[in-house]
Design goal:
The complex is a heterodimer of chains A (220) and B (222). Chain A is 78% helix and 0% strand. Chain A has 220 residues and is an all-alpha fold. Chain A has one domain (4-216): MetI-like fold, CATH 1.10.3720.10. In chain A, α1 (4-31) packs parallel to α5 (88-112) and α1 (4-31) packs across α8. Chain A is globular. Chain B is of the alpha/beta class and 222 residues long. Chain B has six helices and ten strands; from the N terminus they run βββαβββαααβαβαββ. Chain B has helices at 37-45, 91-96, 105-118, 134-147, 164-181, 192-198; strands spanning 2-10, 13-21, 25-30, 53-57, 60-63, 76-79, 152-156, 184-189, 201-206, 209-210. In chain B, strands 6-7-8-3-9-10 form a six-stranded mixed beta sheet, with helices on both faces. In chain B, α3 (105-118) packs across α4 (134-147). The longest helix of chain B has 18 residues, at 164-181. Chain B is globular and about 45 Å long. Chain B starts with a strand and ends in a 12-residue tail after the last strand. The chains are: A mainly alpha (220), B alpha/beta (222). The A-B interface holds A 115, 117-118, 120-128, 135-136, 139-140, 220 and B 45-47, 70-72, 74, 76-78, 80, 82, 84, 86-88, 97-98, 100-101, 128, 130, 144, 148.
Chain lengths: 220, 222
């Protein structure tokens, strides 16, 4: 069994957890205000769409939007000297899109669970909105936010359809563990598939266990 | 002089009226629950915005037609009814949260301990809010509001949950601090006995109207 796809998956999952985590928590914070703003539910629906829209459909949209022949795709290519689709960056993008709704949903619920009076008091104690968020609201939602990141990581690690559509299945570049399992099985290399399956299963369980322990200690 | 004029719409509820309060004495705001007492305090903190509204503290304009200071720029110490101590911080860190941020860490800590001691909460510095009794939590919340060195102290039913002897002791302490520091203080309660304990002027809020304010009629405080 080659370890390449595993390390690749791990790197992609970590990168997309980082991106989906920061973007997702920021979005969750924007959505979790008491103040209603125009388009709040529209933003929520857009961000949540990847949960209900088939990966292939999502992938189609991403390709149309960012593909080599699209204006945006050409802009990216001339800006960074490389396209985003069918590259590692594309794989990260795919995993991020899949993970984002889980972060937003989970983090929003956690943030909304924090007593708003605590944030109000922080403001009267001289805290600007940003400090009130980082010093009071976010730490008090910590458990839920860590849970959100765990879900994002697990989702990113296991992404298949969206990655295949947006990043392809290029050995050594975008062939993640999930794709490698499929390829190995399709090619009859059952031992290799079983090995990857075992490792992915173990990583998932260990991550969940560790996070559960961590979150238990943050309370009280 | 603390001067407040509000016209505040919150959902179906509307609060209107004018209030004036002198420095160095507790002004007691009484009225049935749901009358708008808490809304009045919130308008002064800047957490809600009356339209139109006017909040003036001495020469400082916190709100008028032209300006609206956000809560963090108002020298206000607010003790909400639930106290809202930060559960993830020790008593000391709760109090230090509001201390001037430009000061050195050690100095902020010293001020926090000082404020705790002044509120009769010495010895509680390291404790988490969840381990405090009702009276202790009350004192920590008061210390936190005072450590910010506010001009206006806003107390929302701060003594409601306490038994009578403790209530008497804390009421006396609040009165003493307000007199010593020359603060403006509004103390909301629906308990007439508590109003007497604080011995200050009484403003009545009923059905969304701020009523009878002794200062308006030029009356002297009792």
């Amino acid at each position: 069994m080659t370890l390449g796809p595993l390390w690749l998956s791990l790197g992609i999952a970590l990168a997309s957890t980082l991106i989906a985590g920061s973007v997702g928590v920021a979005l969750a914070a924007a959505l979790a205000t008491r103040r209603r703003f125009v388009g709040r539910e529209a933003v929520d629906a857009l961000v949540t769409a990847p949960l209900v829209v088939p990966p292939t459909v999502l992938g189609y949209y991403v390709l149309t939007l960012l593909g080599a022949s699209s204006p945006l795709g050409r802009a990216i290519e001339s800006l960074f000297g490389a396209p985003i689709v069918f590259t590692r960056a594309g794989a990260v993008l795919a995993a991020t899109i899949g993970a984002l709704p889980l972060v937003v949903k989970t983090a929003r619920a956690a943030l909304e669970g924090v007593d708003p009076t605590l944030v109000d008091v922080a403001r009267t104690l001289g805290a600007r909105p940003l400090r009130a968020f980082f010093a009071v609201r976010l730490p008090l939602a910590g458990r839920g936010v860590v849970a959100a990141l765990t879900l994002a990581f697990a989702r990113a690690l296991g992404d298949f359809g969206l990655t295949l559509m947006v990043a392809g299945d290029i050995p050594g570049r975008t062939r993640t563990a999930s794709l490698a399992i499929y390829d190995a099985l399709a090619a009859g290399r059952e031992a290799e598939a079983a090995g990857l399956v075992a490792v992915l299963t173990a990583v998932g369980i260990v991550a969940l266990y560790g996070v559960n322990r961590l979150t238990r200690r943050t309370v009280g | 002089m603390l001067g407040v004029t509000v016209d505040l719409q919150r959902g179906n509820f509307r609060l209107t009226g004018t209030l004036e309060a002198p420095a160095g004495a507790v002004t007691v705001v009484v009225g049935p629950s749901g009358a708008g007492k808490t809304s009045l305090l919130l308008a002064i903190t800047g957490l809600v915005r009356p339209r139109p509204g006017r909040v003036v503290v001495d020469e400082a304009v916190w709100q008028d037609e032209a300006r609206f200071l956000p809560p963090e720029e108002r020298a206000v110490g607010w003790v909400p009814q639930s106290l809202a101590l930060f559960p993830h911080l020790s008593a000391r860190d709760n109090v230090a949260f509001g201390v001037e941020r430009t000061l050195a860490r050690a100095e902020r800590r010293r001020r926090a301990d000082e404020a705790l001691a002044a509120a009769g909460a010495a010895g509680l510095e390291e404790r988490r809010p969840s381990t405090l009794s009702g009276g202790e939590a009350q004192r920590v919340a008061l210390a936190r509001a005072l450590a910010r060195r506010p001009r206006v102290l806003l107390l929302d039913e701060p003594l409601a949950a306490l038994d009578r002897p403790l209530r008497r002791a804390l009421a006396t302490e609040i009165r003493r601090v307000v007199e010593r520091e020359g603060l403006y203080a509004l103390h909301v309660t629906h308990d007439e006995e508590e109003a007497e304990l604080l011995g200050g002027r009484v403003v009545r809020v009923e059905g969304g109207r701020v009523l009878a304010n002794p200062l308006d009629r030029g009356a002297r405080s009792p």
